[in-house]
Design brief:
This protein has 390 residues and is an alpha/beta fold. Helices cover 42% and strands 17% of the residues. It is elongated and about 80 Å long. The two termini are 31 Å apart.
Length: 390
């Protein structure tokens, strides 16, 4: 990686370490005051050891430029650098002396590994957005798309442990079966009864479910709607519907309706919502075209109807019951603009596509694994390019 890529520049001057809010003067000042590079990383968790060493190297090769910039910083910063400005040659001598004494780590060619287990999994696009995010932040991480048959899942999790992977995503058919192979579940995963993200914590594997949280993020940020007090209708009662319904209820939704063709999944989900969340809930048997109630605020297609290659299919909904002001969401990411969403838009409804949920849950997993905030715009753009959006 080029040295300049570690910094943000203003008027040609490197003033801040990239992807952080930390100025280069902060790192050098702390080091000269006696903090080791490792202690600096502990003080500022968004910094890596590699960035600290890069800061030292940049200063030594651009000291006149940095000194010129520092003359224009705030009064507080000028005070902190007062001695350095009085005697820059002594400052550089001291810095070089301490750099010579330190043990600079050898270059590391080991990538941190995460990925996804599924069957089938070849068309899962998560690798696209995660690899784009790693590259955007300059992280030496890799996302592996791994086909794991149901009978191989136990071996795959043992392999995850043996490879010291930082974590893994789970997709169909492993979200429930993986639970028996983990050491612990987060509260939301235990409540939902399914895991889509595993995070390593020391020697322990912790199961999480980010599907519902990703959907709530999409409703809030992409649609600009607060779920609190809203009446939400879910078409379907599978794993996606379960995760989203639970998280929407926990986010304050007042009423949740589960519409499903069979009651064996729908009724238990309603029972879970009633017993474990503050929301009211009801089950509706889906026998014919569903008429959206006039009081509904949000309608969600949580089925696979319309997923590629069956792009012309739409869920059985009375389209004339969709009205302006209703928020219509579709969990399907491919194609993002489904036939169902196009029909809803034609009726004047607002829409949120499945890319929002996919990026949202992926961004949460990214932060859990790496500790960095995910570059959400980069992740969505990468998926849009794959799906030919825009």
């Amino acid at each position: 990686m080029e040295l300049e890529s570690y910094f943000n520049f203003v008027n040609g001057h490197a003033i801040r370490i990239a992807h952080t809010r930390i100025g280069i003067e902060t790192v050098i000042r702390d080091y000269l005051e006696g903090a080791s590079p490792e202690e600096i990383v502990l003080r500022y968790p968004t910094l890596s050891l590699e960035q600290v060493y890069a800061t030292f190297t940049y200063y030594l090769s651009h000291q006149s430029e940095v000194n010129a910039y520092l003359e224009r910083v705030t009064a507080e910063q000028e005070a902190a650098w007062e001695e350095q400005q009085r005697n820059p040659s002594e400052f550089v001598r001291l810095l070089r002396e301490r750099l010579n004494q330190m043990s600079v780590p050898a270059p590391s060619y080991k990538a941190d590994l995460v990925g996804v287990f599924g069957y089938p999994v070849a068309e899962n696009p998560t690798i696209v957005m995660q690899e784009a995010a790693f590259q955007a932040l300059g992280l030496n991480w890799r996302y592996l798309t791994i086909e794991v048959r149901p009978e191989q899942l136990g071996d795959a999790v043992r392999g995850l442990r043996a490879f010291n992977m930082a974590g893994i995503n789970l997709t169909i058919p492993h979200k429930i079966a993986v639970i028996q192979h983990l050491d612990e579940l987060s509260p939301e995963a235990a409540l939902i009864g399914a895991v889509n993200t595993v995070v390593r914590a020391g020697d322990r594997l912790i199961g999480h479910n980010t599907d519902g949280k990703g959907f709530v993020r999409s409703v809030r940020e992409d649609a600009g709607m607060d779920p609190a007090g809203k009446r939400v209708v879910f078409l379907g009662a599978g794993g996606a519907a379960r995760a989203m319904a639970v998280e929407m209820a926990l986010a304050g939704a007042a009423h949740v309706t589960i519409v499903n063709r069979t009651s064996d999944r729908g009724q238990p989900l309603v029972g879970l919502l009633r017993s474990k969340t503050p929301a009211q809930a009801e089950f509706v048997h889906w026998q014919e075209a569903y008429a959206v109630p006039i009081e509904a605020d949000i309608l969600v297609n949580a089925t696979s109807i319309g997923l590629y290659p069956n792009v012309d299919d739409v869920p059985a909904v009375a389209i004339d019951s969709i009205r302006p002001g209703l928020l219509v969401c579709d969990v399907i990411p491919n194609p993002p603009q489904t036939a169902f969403l196009r029909a809803a838009e034609a009726r004047g409804a607002r829409t949120v596509d499945g890319l929002g949920m996919l990026v949202g849950q992926g961004a949460i997993a990214f932060k859990m694994w790496t500790g960095y905030d995910a570059p959400i715009a980069v992740m969505r753009q990468a998926l849009e390019e794959v799906f030919g959006v825009g």
